[in-house]
Amino acid sequence: MSITVENVCYTYGKGSPFEKKALDNVSFHIEDGDFIGLIGHTGSGKSTLIQLLNGLIKPDSGKVIVNEYDLTSEKIDMKKVRSTVGIVFQYPEYQLFEETVYKDIAFGPANLGKSDEEISAIIEDVLPLVGLSSDILDKSPFELSGGQKRRVAIAGVLAMNPRILILDEPTAGLDPAGRNDILSCIKKLHDKKNVTVILVSHSMEDVANTVNKIMVISDANLIAFDTVGNVFSDSEKLKNIGLNVPQVTRIVNHLRQKGIELGSGIYTVEAAVEAIKKRVRGNDIC
Amino acid sequence: MIEVKDLTYSYDNDEGVSEIVLKEINLNIKKGEFVAVLGHNGSGKSTFAKHLNAIYLPLGGKVVIDGIDTSDPDKLWDIRSMVGMVFQNPDNQIVASIVEEDVAFAPENLSVPPEEIRKRVDDALEAVGMSEYKNHAPHMLSGGQKQRVAIAGIIAMKPDIIVMDEPTAMLDPIGRREVIKTIEDLNQKFGITIVLITHNMDEAVKAQRVVVIDAGRVLIDDTPRNVFKNVEMIRSIGLDVPQATMLAHELIKEGFDIRDDVLTVDECTEEIYKLCQ
Asked: What's the pLDDT band for A282 if we cut at 50, 70, 90?
């Protein structure tokens, strides 16, 4: 499922004293099966952008096209769009409301008109994707741990079988183990089911370890959309807009300033170890 | 300043079975120390934090703050005004619709005279760098700013100790930086004892001392350098180390001869630089 955004502008509180331009003439194209990291500091326009992608808000001008659906047209069937593009909002566990985990996950597909049999098949299908076992289905979502609640909430979105999945800081507030669990679930979804994923994150280390491409938003503008290596290679640019690059990339950049070139596009510990091995052991041979 | 002796705490789970959350914790924190407490979700670290200002009372052992036992009901208000607490979500901690009124809330409740409140509020906002926002509405502020207002509200009580339970978990990198800078200032300039509960290893590195809690017990209690050196052990209990430490550790595993206690980007750069010479 591809996404095309053309010359999109969006302003909040038009005509009020709080008028704020959230997106200013933004255009990009996301290919089917892309795994994108969306970064930008608070207030940069990230959340506005993801809300545009499933029609929660409509742009003031410009076009948003998701696969064959033109979200800006009047006649569009929003139900179809919403089942195509799933959004997992920040702290999704606060949106759990049903008596049991089963009913909570079933809420989306039930609203899409699925039968009871279909729903139970769907639930059986999504639970392992988020690493949960079926014995929690009869529990109240409110007696689960924070990490489990979040996984139930993500399962609720997956139950709609979205082809495009957008997650707004899915690891915020989790401990490192919980964070790694959620990230590997998302990675699995992308790899096995070929879901197009947009991951909004403040953690450059997480983004570097998971996505293929990075989109950087600053002050209502799309200022970079490129491979992880290319985006992180311009660490000055990111620094200027209040973002950081992963520690490993900073180390590689510092070394470059000292005259030691380990190569570009190094943003994970593994890649750095390989580059250093090559550099140091290579020297020994010479 | 803070003495924790054989602290044990448990609660009943849904099936009515008693679950031990803290088991014989012994810890002394001196005046002016900056201590980070690490542990994965459910390790007991928040339960521990809540014992420091008598939100929870020990079921076994005791917690003594500046000579006062927290389980003495007559001294509850002394404890509460000595130990301030900052929580994760700034939105849950702000009560007023104007920043300075919010900061004044605690001293008003402690019946501090009005002139003194004025001074404390101004000083507190100054300390967190939020003076220019004193007449703003808190809901219009960023997360980092709101959290700093919440911290100012605590400072206005003039506590000797501030306990922070994941104060940056819900903030973006800029907000995090602001709050961590504020915490460091409070500790260094004002000598306030800080207990910082966190999941963020880069924040823990800034403390003088790191206490790791796992399964309700103190697993390690040492300087950040000595704690993070134990990469395998830290990771085995579901925590992480800074990426710079991880990189150095992996290089050592590959047989390179570098320091095993690298903490920062600069230290790691230096070690690799030496290798490449």
From this structure: confident
Domains in chain B: ranges and CATH = 2-241 (3.40.50.300)
Does the distance separating the beta carbons of B172 and A254 come in below 8 Å?
A: no
Chain center to CA of B232: 24
Q: For B7-32, what is the mean pLDDT?
A: 88
| Tokens 């404390």, residue located | B120
- For residue B262, what pLDDT band results from cuts at 50, 70 and 90? very high
DSSP B166: S
pLDDT at A30 over 90: yes
Task: Check B199 against A243: CB less than 8 A apart.
Answer: no
Work out the mean pLDDT of chain A and round it to a whole number: 89
A176 vs B42, B239, B266: nearest CB? B239
H or E, element range at A7: strand A3-12
Provide the ipTM.
Answer: 0.79
In this model, does residue A15 exceed pLDDT 90?
no
> Scanning every residue of chain A, which has its alpha carbon at the shortest distance from the alpha carbon of B240?
A176
CB B223, CB B209: distance < 8 Å:
yes
Q: Which residue reads 């789970």 in tokens?
A: B13
Q: What is the pLDDT of residues A215-229, one digit of tens each?
A: 999 989 999 999 998
The residues, any chain, with a CB within 8 Å of residue A203's CB and separated by 6 or more, are A171
Q: Smallest CA–CA separation between B236 and chain A, in Å?
A: 10
Interface test with A, best of B45, B170, B272 (most A CBs within 10 A): B272
A206-210 contacts: CB < 8 A, separation 24 or more? Answer: A206/A171, A206/A179, A207/A37, A207/A39, A208/A232, A208/A246, A208/A248, A208/A249, A208/A267, A208/A268, A209/A183, A209/A268, A210/A35, A210/A37, A210/A183, A210/A186
Surface of B (21-40) touching A: CB under 8 A: 40
Task: Quote the CA–CA distance of B3 and B67 in Å, as a whole number.
Answer: 9
Instruction: Count the neighbouring beta carbons within 10 Å of the beta carbon of residue A95.
Output: 15
What are B201-225's pLDDT values in tens digits?
889 999 999 999 998 999 999 999 9
Query: Could you give the CA distance from residue B63 to residue B65 in angstroms, rounded to a whole number?
Result: 7
Within 8 A of B266 by CB-CB distance, chain A residues are 254
Q: Which helix (H) or strand (E) holds B201?
A: helix B201-204
CB contact under 8 A, B41 and A276: no
Which residue of A175, A218, A255 to mutate against B (max B Cβ within 10 Å)? Answer: A175
pTM of the model: 0.84
Nearest residue to A93 via CA among A33, A48, A142, A40: A142
CA distance A245 to A231: 9
